[in-house]
Design goal:
8 strands; TIM Barrel; globular; alpha/beta
Length: about 260
């Protein structure tokens, strides 16, 4: 089976208007090279209001960055004021959709059932879900990390085929490390990502487990990316705050040069 190509994803969250998005992408266009794109897949996950601008820029400038979204609804259409259907994103050539981010779960009360519906809907519309999982500080200190993370993964992939799981991305983001400046040690991150891969193997088979890409997220920076990416079960990064700075995000993408 071919090696898993790392995926570095920039999650802009509720930041950067469409003018700022263009400026950030223009900087990345000069910072990243053909060699970078051959070594690493790159996606940027802009606010919904930016996605058409991002699409136009990336396609007109022929930049090899994939378009990402931060969320979607699971229904095709209907009376869901304020929501975005996955098919709408697919029409904008969105390739990856973040599903079940801890901020969606913790702040907006998304359940495992809703997250699983979104994963299925993303696949049904020809896009790739990035399924997020992670534990709180209290859960980590209470030695509940394994149960929390593998439970979220179980719920998110249960209804999928082995082939779908092989093609998706799972992102481990310890909630206590998101935007706090605290980062799980590379050993701790590797341990949890290995648990995730083992859970996939248990549920969907060895081939799916060998193929699925597992990202780490949580205060990833240019200074720690190489150490994290050296771990055997970490296949990329879901980057938050550092993704808003083109220079810093480029350093993460170019971790292999560190």
């Amino acid at each position: 089976m071919p090696a898993r190509k790392p995926l570095i994803s920039g999650n802009w969250k509720m930041n950067l208007n469409h003018f700022e998005a263009t400026s950030t992408l223009d900087k990345l266009r000069y910072l990243l090279t053909k060699d970078d794109y051959e070594a690493v897949d790159v996606s940027v996950h802009a606010p919904f209001t930016d996605i058409r601008t991002v699409q136009t820029f990336l396609e007109s400038e022929k930049v090899s960055i994939s378009i990402g979204a931060q969320n979607c609804h699971w229904e095709t259409n209907g009376a869901f004021t304020g929501e975005i259907a996955p098919g709408m994103l697919a029409k904008l050539n969105v390739a990856y959709v973040i599903v079940g981010h801890s901020e969606r779960r913790e702040i907006f009360g998304e359940t495992d059932i809703e997250v699983a519906r979104k994963v299925t809907a993303v696949f049904a519309n020809g896009m790739t879900p990035i399924l997020c999982c992670g534990e709180t500080l209290a859960e980590r200190e209470g030695e509940a990390t394994h149960g929390k993370v593998t439970g979220q993964v179980h719920a998110g992939i249960d209804a999928l085929s082995a082939e779908q799981v092989a093609a998706m991305v799972i992102a481990y983001e310890p909630i206590w490390a998101i935007g706090t400046g605290r980062t799980a040690s590379s050993e701790d991150a590797q341990q949890v990502c290995a648990w995730i891969r083992a859970k996939v193997a248990e549920m969907k088979g060895a081939d799916a487990a060998a193929a699925v890409r597992i990202q780490y997220g949580g205060s990833v920076k240019g200074t720690n990316a190489a150490e994290l990416m050296a771990q055997p079960d970490i296949d990329g990064a879901l980057v938050g705050g550092a993704a808003l700075d083109a220079d810093e995000f480029a350093r993460i993408v170019q971790y292999r040069l560190a």
